[in-house]
C-alpha cells in the first residue's frame, strides 16, 4: 500500500503509467530501502492535480500527484526490492543527458535567431547601451558553445566507463545559460517582446519564451540539487 505525494511530475496528467520511486524499508539509510514500482495512473487512490502555468495555462504539463492507500501488486516491482537507488541514478543520468541535448539544440537555434535580430537592434541603440547589449550577445554566443563542449566531455567519460561530474555541471550551466539567452533577447526587443502570438522565427525574443524557460531550472533535478551534487562529488566539500 502506497501513500505520499510528488510535485513537479511532468506529463502525469497524460500518462497511463509512471515509474514510482518509493521507500520500502524505513529502517535503513535514506539512499537504501528504495524500490521502483510501475504504477498504472488509473489505480484507485491516485490523484493528479495539474499546476497552473503562466505560459499556455490551457495546456499544463507539470503536476502534483497524490497517493492515498494505493494498492499495487508485487508483480509491478521493477528490479530488486530495496535496490531502486542505483536504477534511479541511471535514470537521472539518462534524463540529464537528454536535457543537455535539448538544451544544445534550443540554445543554438535561439542564438541563430538572436544573431539575425541583433544588428538592426544594436544599431538603433545609443552608443553606451549598444556596448552593453553587444557584450551580452557575445556572452550568450560563447556560452552556447561552452554548453556543447561540456556535454561532449561528460559523455566521453561515460563511454569509457568513468563517472561524469560534468553531467551535474552541464545541467546547471545549460539551464542558466538558456535563461540568460531568453532574458537578453527579450530586453533587446523591448516592447516587441510583449507580442502575444510571436512569429516562429522570433520566439526567442518574447516574454512567452522568457517565462517558459524557468522550468528548466526545476526539471531533471533543480539547480539547488545540482549545486549540492557539484559541491559534494566534484569539489569534495563537507555536507552541512
TrEMBL record:
Residues 82-235 form the Acyl-CoA dehydrogenase/oxidase C-terminal domain. GO terms for molecular function: oxidoreductase activity, acting on the CH-CH group of donors. Keywords: FAD, Flavoprotein, Oxidoreductase. SUPFAM superfamilies: Acyl-CoA dehydrogenase C-terminal domain-like (SSF47203), Acyl-CoA dehydrogenase NM domain-like (SSF56645). Pfam families: Acyl-CoA_dh_1, Acyl-CoA_dh_M. Residues 1-69 form the Acyl-CoA oxidase/dehydrogenase middle domain. InterPro entries: Acyl-CoA_Oxase/DH_mid-dom, Acyl-CoA_Oxase/DH_mid-dom_sf, AcylCo_DH-like_C, AcylCo_DH/oxidase_C, AcylCoA_DH/oxidase_NM_dom_sf, Mycobact_Acyl-CoA_DH. Gene3D superfamilies: Butyryl-CoA Dehydrogenase, subunit A, domain 2 (2.40.110.10), Butyryl-CoA Dehydrogenase, subunit A, domain 3 (1.20.140.10). One of its GO terms (cellular component) is plasma membrane. Belongs to the acyl-CoA dehydrogenase family. This is Unannotated protein. It comes from freshwater metagenome.
Amino acid at each position: 500500500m502506497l501513500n505520499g505525494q510528488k510535485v513537479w511530475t511532468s506529463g502525469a496528467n497524460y500518462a497511463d503509467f509512471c515509474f514510482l520511486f518509493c521507500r520500502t524499508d524505513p529502517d535503513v539509510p535514506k539512499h537504501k530501502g528504495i524500490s521502483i514500482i510501475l504504477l498504472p495512473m488509473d489505480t484507485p487512490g491516485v490523484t493528479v492535480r495539474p499546476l497552473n502555468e503562466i505560459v499556455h495555462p490551457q495546456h499544463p504539463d507539470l503536476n502534483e500527484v497524490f497517493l492515498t492507500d494505493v494498492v499495487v501488486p508485487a508483480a509491478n516491482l521493477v528490479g530488486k526490492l530495496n535496490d531502486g537507488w542505483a536504477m534511479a541514478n541511471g535514470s537521472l543520468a539518462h534524463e540529464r543527458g537528454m536535457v543537455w541535448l535539448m538544451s544544445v539544440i534550443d540554445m543554438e537555434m535561439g542564438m541563430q535567431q538572436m544573431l539575425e535580430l541583433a544588428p538592426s537592434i544594436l544599431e538603433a541603440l545609443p552608443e553606451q547601451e549598444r556596448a552593453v547589449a553587444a557584450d551580452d550577445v557575445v556572452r550568450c554566443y560563447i556560452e552556447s558553445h561552452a554548453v556543447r563542449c561540456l556535454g561532449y566531455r561528460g559523455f566521453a567519460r561515460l563511454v569509457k566507463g568513468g563517472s561524469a561530474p560534468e553531467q551535474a555541471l552541464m545541467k546547471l550551466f545549460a539551464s542558466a545559460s538558456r535563461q540568460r539567452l531568453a532574458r537578453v533577447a527579450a530586453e533587446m526587443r523591448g516592447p516587441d517582446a510583449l507580442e502575444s502570438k510571436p512569429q516562429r522565427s522570433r520566439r526567442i525574443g518574447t516574454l512567452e519564451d522568457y517565462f517558459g524557460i524557468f522550468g528548466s531550472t526545476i526539471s531533471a533535478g533543480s539547480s539547488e540539487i545540482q549545486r549540492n551534487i557539484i559541491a559534494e562529488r566534484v569539489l569534495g566539500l563537507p555536507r552541512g
